[in-house]
Design goal:
heterotrimer; A mainly alpha; B mainly alpha; C alpha/beta; A: mainly alpha; about 0% strand; flat; B: mainly alpha; MetI-like fold; 2 domains
Chain lengths: ~325, ~325, ~260
């Protein structure tokens, strides 16, 4: 065996030049791949930039205050976003009120209360499954359940509830993740001074996971703002030249809930509407709307990511 | 023991000290809160149940008129025409074709980007690029629809002058671009999960970065990477706005991406934009189409989660 | 006591090492590795023994910001393997390493052993077959796995996995083999197997082993170095270190008064 070893032996030192040449060859692959990889990354990043610049340049003529204060119109030049951004705001308000309490409560239950058995498994499987359901399916659910089943019609309430269900998994998952980061020792410390479970959850768990929950809420809301398909599916009208009744009135009781059942339009729907017209003038409106949607969603997501980064950096248990 | 049980079962029957009464009240409050939280968690189950119930219920009405055989084997989908045909094949073909184009773009670029990020990029570069990828995932799809229709299609028409203004190629490519960050991000996570000791083992043998990435890290993370692909398929199949805007609204039984064709999602949008009477066959048809879409995406999602779970168990 | 006629395979000269956070983990270490001998590094955890070992195949280059000062000279060619002009990959092809925890690749037993050769561009099936068999025999694993070379390496036991990692390192005929606490994750029987294997390997190559276990150092090594807080406190042949150490610190550590 020893003689064989000797004959087979191609030790590095005897063929140093050949080995070095081979290493250089292999390292060229490294550099080649690194360049391709960088290109792949840049491709992704540059696309965003191109997309944004394209929208801004195409939509440039519409960037003025009138665009925000005018109703849609048959003439592209004088058409504006007023009903769309007001609609988006109101729908988002309903979405927020639906998704945040339910989502955070569900996250709390799953992390703090749920026994580890088939029951919590069932809920968990459902949450992760819902996160993967295409948004248009939520639209069909809303069409069958909210619009016709419960008779809520094609209203702000319907849209808000639909988007609320849509972003529920996002909020549940982010709530759970930030709760999970809290060490058991903190809970034990609270229990040790005689706190009940709910006191521990309210005063400690919720409090310390606020930042993480907020991150999820912002990401969810930004998703809701940009969603188009489910809103189209519930049959939202796309030509709305009026505003819903104001939620606040000058006479007692100062609050008015008629706006909930009002028809509406939202920013992405307005964009889709303008985009599907053949007339190029309307495409300018679509571009301007797209630029606005991108700016708002990027700002929201950017805030959320920054927030998460800060939390990770600051809190060291 | 049995006495203790009795106390718990009928607290009101027994005279208790004020302190114990307070405890019982507190206990009751705790239970109410737990119940409320549980109901919130159950909303997820309820939502799934409602989705399935609505899709099945409306589809049931649809299948009273249309036979399953016609639905699955018919080659024409014209539920809104006078001469109505109800073959889902053209819509499925459109969905598969756009998804295929999207994945042909997203899988290679996304995987290369993931390998680069995980194995080549410096820590600092990764810290910058990862959040930007996440930002990209958050860009609303309607904006990508604009991109496909008014930027990519005209560009492609310069290369193929015969390309129609609505075509699956452009929609598929843009959808692919949209999915790249998703694949890159999920696959990168899987590669990061490969323990450092394995990389060290490879480097210690004199391997280069590329050899280590290709021959050790990628095989070790393969189930996570495959899970990323499967979940990406599900996204492509369920994607709506890009195809509704750019791929066309005509059901067209073809796998040629240079043609225009409606996908399942685009059909639902098209019908929803019109004014269809409730409970008409046209109205029911979007639920039947939706049911097919739901089953398709659910299958891919479950598959993806099974594969993903496998790699989580590995390390 | 050191035999002056034994050739030196490698030596560190005034070796300093700084981690990226600025910590100076090695302080001017000068020490020889004699050819075809086993040199053991002992000392309390955090003393820099693993850091020292990992300098020999430039593992620290994998993490940005780490800095070497001084030299590690390899003989007979007198290459300073820490020199900027020397490719770490070339160094790693000459000096292989076995890690603390077995770290087989997610590949078959065969492919694990063949990995180093494939990395070198060797694809000749006959050649690979021979080398794999030879390396597995050298690592005393051949009889246990010869019928299932295509099995996934993860299916082996911990001790078998570590021997597989040794076979992997052996297959490329390294001049020096580094062992970083190779038995700390293994049970006593597997440990005994590995120790016996190392003693046999001494006939073929030079070994540097880090161990947290003084008995192990005493059992298998020819030379022993005691390190503390990044400094080399004492280096001598193993018998001398364990029976008549010249430094008080070494004696305290050996006798268990400290560490």
């Amino acid at each position: 065996m020893n003689t064989k070893t000797k004959t087979n032996k191609a030790s590095v030192i005897d063929n140093l030049d050949a080995v070095r040449a081979m290493i250089q060859r292999h390292k060229r692959n490294d550099i080649l791949f690194a360049s391709i990889g960088l290109l792949a990354i840049m491709f992704g990043l540059l696309t965003l930039l191109v997309l944004f610049l394209d929208l801004v340049m195409d939509g440039y003529p519409r960037f003025n205050l009138q665009f925000f204060s005018d109703f849609p119109s048959r003439r592209a030049g004088s058409a504006g976003l007023l009903s769309a951004w007001v609609g988006s705001l109101l729908v988002m308000f309903v979405t927020f009120l639906t998704a945040v309490p339910i989502g955070v409560s569900a996250g709390l239950y799953l992390e703090e209360y749920a026994p580890k058995n088939w029951f919590s498994d069932l809920i968990e499987i459902n949450v992760s499954n819902l996160a993967g359901v295409p948004s248009i399916i939520y639209g069909l659910l809303a069409l069958g359940l909210f619009v016709y089943g419960l008779g809520l019609g094609q209203s702000i309430l319907t849209a808000g509830l639909t988007l609320g269900l849509l972003i529920l998994p996002i909020i549940i998952v982010s709530t759970r993740e930030s709760i999970r980061a809290i060490p058991v020792a903190i809970r034990e410390a609270a229990y040790a001074v005689g706190a009940t479970k709910w006191q521990v959850v309210r005063d400690h768990v919720v409090k310390y996971s606020q930042g993480g929950i907020l991150t999820g809420v912002i990401i969810g809301m930004s998703r809701a703002l940009g969603e188009t398909a489910p809103i189209i599916t519930i049959g939202a009208l796309t030509f709305i030249a009026f505003l819903p009744p104001s939620p606040i009135t000058t006479t007692a009781p100062y609050l008015n809930f008629e706006w909930l059942s009002s028809s509406f339009t939202v920013l992405p729907i307005q964009m889709f509407n303008w985009l599907s017209r053949p007339d190029h003038e309307f495409h300018i409106n679509a571009a301007a709307t797209g630029a606005i949607i991108i700016v708002v969603t990027l700002l929201m997501n950017g805030t959320a990511i920054w927030l998460r980064y800060k939390i990770r950096k600051n809190i060291k248990w | 023991m049995s006495v203790a049980n009795n106390v718990r079962k009928n607290p009101t029957d027994i005279k208790v000290s004020p302190r114990l009464a307070k405890n019982l009240k507190r206990h009751f409050k705790e239970r109410v809160i737990e119940f409320i939280l549980m109901m919130a968690a159950l909303s997820a189950v309820f939502t799934t149940f409602a989705i399935v119930a609505i899709l099945l219920y409306e589809s049931f009405g649809f299948f009273e008129t249309v036979s399953l055989v016609e639905f699955f084997t018919g080659t024409q989908w014209t539920p809104l025409f006078e001469d109505a045909h109800y073959g889902i094949m053209p819509l499925v073909a459109g969905t598969l074709t756009t998804s295929f184009v999207a994945l042909a773009v997203a899988i290679p670029i996304g995987t290369i980007a993931a390998i680069y990020l995980s194995e080549f990029a410096s820590h600092k570069a990764r810290e910058i690029v990862k959040p930007i990828l996440e930002l990209l995932v958050g860009v609303p799809t309607i904006v990508f629809g604009y991109f496909a229709l008014l930027l990519v299609t005209p560009l492609l028409q310069k290369i193929y002058p015969d390309l129609p203004s609505f075509n699956m190629l452009s929609a598929g490519i843009v959808m692919g671009v949209m999915i790249i960050p998703y694949i890159a991000s999920v696959a990168e996570d899987a590669m990061r999960a490969v323990p450092m000791s394995m990389r060290e083992g490879s480097y210690a043998m004199g391997a280069t970065r590329f050899q280590t990435a290709l021959k050790v890290v990628t095989p070790a993370a393969i189930s996570g990477i495959v899970a990323a692909y499967i979940l990406a398929i599900s996204r492509a199949v369920g994607e709506t706005m890009v195809v509704a805007v750019a791929a066309g609204q005509q059901p067209n039984l073809t796998f040629d991406p240079t043609e225009g064709a409606a996908t399942i999602t685009a059909f639902i949008v098209q019908v929803a934009l019109g004014d269809l009477p409730h409970a008409s066959i046209g109205y029911q048809s979007i639920f039947a189409a939706g049911l097919v879409l739901f089953v398709l995406t659910l299958t891919f999602n479950i598959l993806g989660h099974i594969v993903r779970k496998k790699y989580r168990e590995q390390y | 006591m050191i035999n002056a006629t034994t050739p030196i395979k490698a030596e560190s000269r005034d070796l300093n090492f700084f981690y990226s956070n600025g910590t100076r983990a090695l302080k001017g270490i000068t020490m020889p590795l004699y050819e075809n001998k086993i040199t053991a590094l002992i000392g309390p955890s955090g003393c820099g023994k693993s850091t020292y070992l990992r300098c020999f195949n430039r593992m620290h280059d994998l993490y940005p910001g780490n800095k070497y000062e001084g030299q590690i000279i390899m003989h007979p060619d007198n290459t300073n393997i820490l020199d900027n002009g020397v490719d770490p990959i070339e160094v790693r092809m000459r000096i292989s390493m076995v890690f603390q925890k077995p770290n087989p690749f997610p590949k078959s037993i065969y492919e694990n052993v063949a990995y180093g050769l494939r990395v070198r561009g060797e694809n000749n099936k006959r050649m690979l077959d021979d080398k794999v068999e030879e390396a597995l025999k050298g690592a005393a694993l051949w009889n246990e796995v010869k019928d299932r070379l295509q099995d996934l390496a993860f299916n082996l036991s911990g001790g078998q996995q570590q021997r597989l990692c040794i076979a992997r390192a052996l297959a490329t005929d390294p001049e020096i083999m580094l062992f970083d606490e190779p038995t700390s994750a293994l049970d006593p029987i597997a440990t005994a197997n590995i120790e016996e294997l190392m003693s046999e390997l001494r006939n073929k190559l030079t070994i540097l082993v880090v161990t947290h276990n003084m008995q192990q150092a005493a059992r298998i090594s020819d030379y022993t170095a005691y390190m503390y807080l990044g400094e080399l406190i004492e280096y001598d042949d193993t018998d001398t270190i364990f029976t008549r150490p010249s430094r008080k610190e070494t004696e305290d550590y050996i006798t268990g008064k400290f560490g």
